[in-house]
Design goal:
alpha/beta; 10 strands; 351 residues; 15 helices; single chain
């Protein structure tokens, strides 16, 4: 019965979206994520980007114009990621503008620059703040390649709660290098945040050729069982990149509904104004759906993203076509496909 309803919910989202498109009324994305900068004060071993590269960023004026366009089009949520967003001097001004015109807002940060001085402004202009913490003490500092970064990040959680930020989320990327610290991370999140979101390493950027960051079958099983066994009075969520989890899916996603909304419910505006499905996808021609320097956001959204919306499963990996779970996973995460890590059920040995 669970499987029936899971398939029905996933199909309903896509079929409803495409039905509206055929009527000439393409639904606006619920969420637009803005990759505001690739500049960063850290050199995380698992980062999907390279922060030592320089790119021309969208200006404050362009972003104010774009916020008005997104609002008029019907977008509901505007979230900011990086790089490290707080390295841009105008990030909080842009978020304040977004909040003022009616968006629900979000911010992802490594926490290093969060302080009593700016936490009040963050709380006033951001509905949900994600602070990244990948280990306890020295482990976090080593993974982030930044001495003192753990103390700063843990303090950011406390300062944001102190200033009554509406939602404070701790996020962690789990790899073999910090898997043994799950209990400590759970305690830290439970004491200082409203929820904890867990992800695993994506095979892009610095992590693209580092096999030491990829969880083995036993390690991945340990992580998923840990999440499944967490008490129900504190929300622990698993990120989207692992997709459908086979028989463990209902146990891990017992308090949320997994559906990757890239190209259907959400998209990402890159630092240079090029639009792609999600922030984790490489900003290469293969994944770019349009350029805001040439077209309006509405034109890009309505005429791009065809592979995301194809009910016939185009561009799905060959090994997925005959799978009985195709309606549940839709071929897995596109980023994980780059290293043939998209089938979590296979990785877990649950075929």
């Amino acid at each position: 019965m669970f499987r029936f309803f899971e398939e029905a919910k996933r199909k309903a989202i896509l079929v409803s979206f495409n039905s509206m498109r055929r009527l000439g009324k393409t639904p606006a994305p619920k969420t637009v994520v803005w990759e505001c900068t690739l500049a960063c004060n850290m050199q995380c071993v698992h980062c999907g980007a390279y922060s030592n590269k320089k790119f021309k960023e969208l200006s404050t004026e362009k972003m104010f114009f774009l916020l008005d366009e997104l609002s008029s089009y019907g977008v509901e949520r505007f979230a900011v990621t990086g790089g490290e967003p707080l390295l841009r001097k105008d990030t909080l001004d842009i978020l304040a503008r977004a909040k003022k015109i009616g968006f629900s807002t979000g911010l992802s940060t490594n926490g290093f620059f969060v302080s009593d001085e700016n936490a009040r402004k963050i709380a006033d202009s951001v509905d949900s703040v994600q602070v990244s913490i990948d280990g306890i003490g020295r482990t976090h500092d080593l993974l982030r390649r930044k001495s003192g970064s753990f103390i700063k990040a843990a303090n950011a959680l406390r300062v944001l709660k102190k200033h009554n930020c509406k939602q404070v989320c701790m996020t962690s990327i789990i790899s073999p290098l910090n898997l043994d610290e799950l209990n400590g991370l759970y305690d830290l999140a439970r004491q200082n945040a409203d929820l904890w979101r867990i992800g695993t390493v994506m095979p892009i950027g610095r992590a693209s050729k580092n096999n030491e960051l990829i969880l083995s079958r036993e390690q991945l099983t340990k992580l998923l069982k840990f999440i499944a066994e967490t008490p129900s009075d504190f929300l622990v969520l698993l990120g989207e990149n692992l997709g459908y989890l086979g028989k463990l899916d209902s146990l891990v996603h017992k308090r949320d509904f997994f559906f990757c909304g890239a190209g259907i419910l959400s998209c990402c505006i890159g630092i240079d104004g090029k639009v792609r499905g999600c922030p984790e996808l490489p900003s290469t021609s293969e994944f770019i759906e349009g350029d805001l320097a040439k077209d309006s956001f509405a034109d890009i959204w309505e005429n791009g993203f065809r592979d995301y919306r194809n009910e016939a499963f185009s561009k799905i990996p060959d090994d997925c076509i005959s799978c009985s779970d195709l309606d549940l996973c839709r071929g897995g995460c596109q980023v994980m496909r780059l290293r043939n890590l998209h089938c979590t059920k296979k990785r877990l040995g649950l075929e």
